[in-house]
Prior knowledge:
Elements: H1 9-18, H2 25-37, E1 41-44, H3 51-62, E2 66-70, H4 77-81, E3 82-84, H5 86-99, H6 105-108, E4 114-116, H7 118-123, E5 132-136, H8 143-155, E6 157-160, E7 164-167, E8 173-178, H9 186-190, E9 193-196, H10 202-212, H11 218-232, H12 242-254, H13 262-268, H14 276-285, H15 287-291
Parallel strand pairs: 1-8, 1-9, 2-5, 5-8
Antiparallel strand pairs: 3-4, 6-7
Helix pairs in contact: 1-2, 1-3, 10-11, 10-12, 11-12
Amino acid sequence: MDTPEVPDVAALSGMLEATGYLTDESLSTALFLAVRLGQPILLEGEPGVGKTEAAKSLALALDTPLIRLQCYEGLTSSDALYEWNYPRQLLGIRLAEARGEALTDADLFSEDYLMARPLLAALEHPGPRPAVLLIDEVDRADDEFEAFLLELLAESTVTIPELGTRHAIIPPIAVLTSNRTRDLHDALKRRCLYHWIAHPDVDRVAAIIRRRVPGAADWLAERVAGSVHRLRGLDLYKPPGIAEAISWAAALHVLGVEVLDEEAAGRTMSAVLKYDEDRVTVAARGLAGVVGD
Length: 293
C-alpha cells in the first residue's frame, strides 16, 4: 500500500490535525489500523460528531482521493457500482445502422459504454495511493445492499454480469459510517474495525471551533462550546453536534457579536436548532440559562 509515511498513531494524529481535524488517541489508533491493515472501519455515533469529516480528513492527510457513496433507502448495487451509458449506446446503434453493420451484445456492453459509480471507481482507482472510500450512513440502506457489500469489503472484488469479476487495482481504505438508526448485521461488522465516536467534551469542541472558524475569538469559541453542552443536556429531538457548534460560532462571528447573551443567542438559534419543537423547548427553559447568564 503506497501511502505517505505513517509510522505510528502519533504521526497520523498530527497529519489529521494539519487538515483541521482534531481527534483523540482512540480514534487515531482505529484509523491508523485501518490504513496499515487495509481493513474497513465502521464509525458509529450520533449525527454531527464528525464521522464523515474523519473520512474526509483522512483522505486529505494521505493526499489521496475521497470517493463518497451516500446511502439511502432503496439504494441498489447497480446504483452504487456502475451504469451503462444508454445515450452513447443508442448513438452507437444508429451509427452502426447507418454503416450497415450489425452490433452484438458484447459490442454494446463493453468498457466503452461502462460508467463507474462510487464503488467501482474506488476499486479501479489507479493509485499510486489507495482511495478513501466513504460509505456514508450505511444504516440508511436496505439489508440487501448491506449483504452486497460483504464481498466488496472482504475481497475488494465485485462482479459485473456483462463483463465478469473485477478485482481492485489498489484496494481502497473503506470507511463506513452509521448513525445507528438500525442495527447492522454481524456479518458486516465482522469485516470491519469498529469505533464509536462520542460527542467531545467542552474543551475539545472549543478547540475545534477555533480551527474551523478562523478569526473567532477564544472567548466566543469557549462560550459557544459551553452553551452547546448545556443545550445537549435538554430533552431535545435533535441535540446540536459539532457541526451546529461550528455554524453557530461562524454566525456570531460574522454578525460581530461581542457578548454571547440571551439576545444574541435568540437571533442566531437558527444555526443551532433544526426543529421547531426544540426551539419551543429551549424557549421554555430560557436562553439565559443556555448561554450561562
